Amino acid sequence: AQKITQTQPGMFVQEKEAVTLDCTYDTSDPSYGLFWYKQPSSGEMIFLIYQGSYDQQNATEGRYSLNFQKARKSANLVISASQLGDSAMYFCAMREGEYGGGNKLTFGTGTQLKVEL
Amino acid sequence: GAVVSQHPSRVICKSGTSVKIECRSLDFQATTMFWYRQFPKKSLMLMATSNEGSKATYEQGVEKDKFLINHASLTLSTLTVTSAHPEDSSFYICSARSDYNEQFFGPGTRLTVL
Fold it and tell me: Does residue A64 have a pLDDT over 60?
């Protein structure tokens, strides 16, 4: 089974609108972390936001927020007030265990976001 | 945030030659670094976990003799693609783990094998 599933290969949003990028995960480990990264066409991976499995509140970082629904095993990324510069590939990733697996990340297949005027 | 560099950013080589890619943590020490491979419009696939002073741990299906990893210091890990072939052409990205369990990515190296 896929550990990280991103069901939206591509998304379009108008500038200044909010957009939600979906991510579901599968793990039996009670301790895990969820990450979102942005990858522009230049290729570098830019860290956006992190949610720990034991965190009581949803993570927020500026215009980014993570809608964490533990029972449903979903960790959707919400980008508010989209900007043209938000156009990029977005990856959801999971780290299982607090220090398990040497902290390696498993990535989803990504969502290509295009912000339009 | 912490900075991780990769060198070279882009390399073109002939089939049969070996290529070395460097990954450096510039302002922190990283006992663990990771090497990923990414095909166009695809996700990142972990190739191996590089631990300073010990042998790398390779993911299933990754040939350790093909992709040599050396983590000789706390700030440098190298990936050498030996006897490169066109199918090795890809985008290679490293990441480094800090003492605080954060993971920082390098800018990537685009390898093209002719």
Answer: yes
